[in-house]
Amino acid sequence: MFKIFADRGGTFTDLVAITPDNQIIIHKLLSENPEHYQDAVMQGIKNILEITNNNCIPSEKIEVIKVGTTVATNALLERKGDRTVLLITKGFKDALKIGYQNRPNIFALEIKLSEILYEKVIEIEERYNAQGVELLPVNYNFIPQLEQAYQSGIRSCAIVLMHSYLYPKHELQVAEIAKKIGFTQISISHQVSPLIKLVSRGDTTVVDAYLSPILKRYINNLASQLSNTKLMFMQSNGGLINAENFNGKDSILSGPAGGIVGAVKTSLKAGINKIITFDMGGTSTDVAHFNGEYERSFETEIAGIRLCTPMMSIHTVAAGGGSIIKYDDFRYQVGPESAGANPGPACYRKGGKLTITDCNLIVKKIQPQFFPKVFGINSNLPLDKEIVKDKFRELATEIKDKTAEQIAEGFITIAVENMANAIKKISLQRGYDVSEYTLVCFGGAGGQHACLIADSLGMKRIFIHPYAGVLSAYGIGLADVRIIKQKSVEKELNLKLLSVLKQLIKELEIEANSKISPLMKGGKGGSYSYKVNLKYLGTDSSLTVNFNKNIDIMREEFEEKHLTRYGFLQENKELIVELISVELIQEMPTVKPPIINRNRPLNEPPKPIEISQIFTHNSWYKTPIYLREDLQPDDCIMGTAIIVEKISTIIIEPDWKARLTNQNCLILEKV
Q: What is the pLDDT of residues 276-299, one digit of tens each?
């Protein structure tokens, strides 16, 4: 039976399929092409199985489909979620709107608050104090207002009450009433995010209520076409979950998290364990740091909304192949606007604006003859180089004394610096020396810029997997099932607290098992990881360390991380346990890529299929073009060169060389 892994990105949807005889098929198509299909994932599955649009997908041929999707992410960014009502403790009606009064720009004369996601607020008379004493029982006089909200068409409900992360009785009472009224989506804060801080817990619960119905409709639509096929989704924390348990709050970084997993798992197999991941797609670039374990953040702000949920620590910048370029105010500007999938870059033949992809076309780092003919209104034409030349001629009349190639390279330089700065944020600014790391490059546009990024950062080595162009989808296929459960503690770390932490661990293990049990079939059994977030007494920033029965070991790990991150220690200062988390991991069966053997003499180099030129470093360079499938282990290619893959292009810049390993991976090294 087929196993299919899909990543629906902002511009392209990538699919990787494992055939019944363990062959790997890769496929890429535009995420939005309304003239030809409604959903890119389903269309991609049909293309792989060679099914015409009028025929149903034979579910009996598919064992499992694993998906990473931007459906909920886009709904959050565009504020197109479901209508939601917020139920909150009386006196805190505007708490989520006010937020924390942060001033990221202290000189701004006009403060613009983020747009709220809920449509209506209903206050509830009830109250527990911080010690669990019921000060006020639930007053049911809010029911008429809730019924009125339901009658107005609202079907999503977020319930956020004071201190409910420890004392949930009142929230459960209110949820029961909402269920009887008929609300179909009820997000309860102590279940969604059982952590201290009303505002971030409330925001997370509202996001869950706002996005979950959209996800459920998308999941139901897929399930209706797939009969009894097992359907799994990638979560923001880097783990898979079955479709029934996939919620809005866990979906924001669904696709990018798959890329991190793919980068980590493939580089570890190649013996590389200190990496910076660089995922450049059509709309944005995602970067992350890895040195032995996945880095996660437990409190994140995305699109102006605070989220308290475990998410991969990924930094994103609006710089991708589809980033729109312009010359304005006498300066080069790249992004943040993207041409997306429709209309796409100018060369896509749909009337789009000039983008970074068009810049690479002008400097000949993209060769149209090696790109699939999937562009234009009928999706059957090659990239249009002539329209791009015309648009750059127009730019050249505005930017004096520059050729079209120099202008294009100028825009590429801006994009490269934007992406390099993103990597500095997650490495140099946190105490890591990037020169000791390997840049793991993937994404459809990553191979065109990897050497330039590495040069900008002083990095000496780049790793490129054979499926780098679809590594997010491939990573989703390699991912494990992961369930993370958390609990607030906010108490001083001492011997007395250890017994409390052990009891909490047992409770969280039971919670995690209740979610993972339906998925155990086909897995290799579960293992646990235990973490605590520690901080100095009187501070607000915590660091994650491994839970240990020895307090001194936890303190040592915390102090080592604190010194790396902040550059100082507070000796003999009390430590506070902010929260404890249990992660249940179930390994899923994956296909091992074959080891390839060399069948060409060592002294016989690969032959280029064509000799071209590319414009880089303000000069034209003679450039051989190689097909990836013609390369064999221990082949060494000196820059400047182009390596063409089925779904991406790799540029070897001057002073770089590329070597193929017996796992069919490319290692690029600075000469």
A: 999 888 777 889 999 888 888 888
Structure tokens at 140: 């049911």
What are the tokens at 554?
């936890």
- Looking only at the bridges linking them, the beta strands covering 311-312 and 296-297 are antiparallel
CA-CA distance, 402 to 394, in Å (whole number)? 12
The DSSP secondary structure of 309-345, one letter per residue, reads S-EE--EEES-STTEEEEEETTEEEEEEEE-TTTT-S
Query: Is the dihedral angle over the CA atoms 572, 573, 576, 582 positive or is it negative?
Result: negative
283 upstream amide cis, omega within 30 of 0: no
- CA count, 13 A, side-chain hemisphere, 3: 18
- Per-residue pLDDT at 362: 94
Of 480, 548, 470, the residue nearest 234 (C-alpha): 480
Q: Read out DSSP for 150-189?
A: HHTT--EEEEE-TTTTT--HHHHHHHHHHHHHT-SEEEEH
pTM of the model: 0.86
| DSSP codes of every residue in 383-436 | --HHHHHHHHHHHHHHSTT--HHHHHHHHHHHHHHHHHHHHHHHTGGGT--GGG
**174 and 282 Cβ atoms separated by less than 8 Å:** no
The whole-angstrom distance between residue 333's C-alpha and the CA centroid of its chain comes to 25
Q: Tokens at residue 506, please?
A: 């047992």
| Chain CA centroid to CA 546, Å | 24
Cα(636)–Cα(29) distance, integer angstroms: 32
Q: Which amino acid, one-letter code, is at 116?
A: I
